[in-house]
Amino acid sequence: MNKASYELVERRGGVSEFRLSHNGLSVLIAPTAVAPVATLGVVYRVGSKDEVAGHTGATHMLEHLMFKGTKRFNRSRGTEIARVLQRVGANFNATTWLDRTNYYATVPVEHLETAADIEADRMRGALVRDEDLEKERSVVLNELDRGENEPFEILLKGLFAHAFIEHPYHHPTIGWRGDVEAIQGETLRRFYNTFYQPDNASVIVAGDIEEKPALDLVERFFGPLESGSARRPRGTIREGRQRGERRFTVHRSGELGFIGCVWHIPEGLHRDIAPLGVAAQILTEGVVSRLSRRLVETNLCLGVHASAMETHDPGLFQVFATLAPGVEHADVEAMIFEEVHALGTAMAEPGELARAKVQCRTDLAFQRESPARLVSALTEAVAIGDWRTFADEMDRVAEVGPEDVMRVCQMYLKPSNRTVGWFVPESDPENGR
């Protein structure tokens, strides 16, 4: 007999949260009848920030192994997870990031049961075998090698490693090479048993569904799972205040130069994230944005992009520029800093502020246009600490005024709080040009 029952926690913005009382699993249901499909996702509140030194990359490696077999879905039975999902026409994958790991499948609505069955079995029935680890280790090492040939990936890894000295956001999600080469199966099994538990997860269902049948389906498959008994360590490290600019330069073979600039900002649930997001739009979104006009329209750069990270712990405001051939890094860097400084010393014009807010709200609206995007957006909201931020984001953006944008730029985007990285392309990284 199924011992599970559920209780309503809250309804907001077209999303309802329930909790299974037996094991603590959070369930989010979001009916969106845009097509006869549904997406079921599971987000575990564990990411690379939960790894300890020497075991970096464990979360990402475990994600790989979660596709290699469970007690019921495995190759020996002809029921590998990928094979079963492909048979029903599913679009599926998994991703690992700083604060979370997620698994998802978009299926014809009549096959939603298949997705629920797989994810429930994967939650507590994964095999995590040593022989699979050795195969996937080679796959992950190949991913690392490919990343070492991507200028943007190299720059991004360096920016996180220099901006975060104490906090585990310092480590790349894929892990450091030495750790990936040395990680053992027992370590991954312990990691799995600690974090892959119902009371550390949220199941999200969106699409052409009705709330009650979808909730009953989740309860039927996930309800019998027992809650975890292992204590989950939660990091309490806070990055100390940065008291001066940090910078680095990477000289590697390549064709184009890149610049990355990051500043420390608050956690994703902080009230200042909305005005920081609007500031990013003013700087780089669209051909009339400040840095696009200054850098792209003048052919100094091939592209420029800014964003305010939304993370569980304090994150980064980022600006990246791809330089046109022959353009000097110092010239582009100076222009970026001039525009960032200007945004913090004078209020944005009413027209550009209104345009930026419309763009922000349009981006948020796109998150609701399909079940897969809706599940993805809710996944990130769960990861930063509260799914309800998804429902409230549009209102928070609407409330942003010009004084808010100026204040946050002045407060956070200052020279003593920034880290700067240059990727300088060379034809021969050993001997120069």
Describe this structure in words.
There is one protein chain. By secondary structure, the protein is of the alpha+beta class. The chain folds into 2 domains: 6-222, Cytochrome Bc1 Complex, Chain A, domain 1; 246-426, Cytochrome Bc1 Complex, Chain A, domain 1. It has helices at residues 58-65, 81-87, 112-125, 130-147, 151-163, 177-182, 185-195, 211-222, 273-284, 290-296, 329-345, 350-366, 371-384, 388-398, 402-412, and strands spanning 6-12, 15-20, 26-31, 37-44, 91-96, 101-108, 201-207, 246-253, 258-264, 301-308, 316-323, 418-426. The chain has a 7-stranded mixed β-sheet with strand order 1-2-3-7-4-6-5, sandwiched between helices. Strands 8-12-9-11-10 form a 5-stranded mixed β-sheet, with helices on both faces. The termini are far apart. The model has no long low-confidence stretch (mean pLDDT 94).
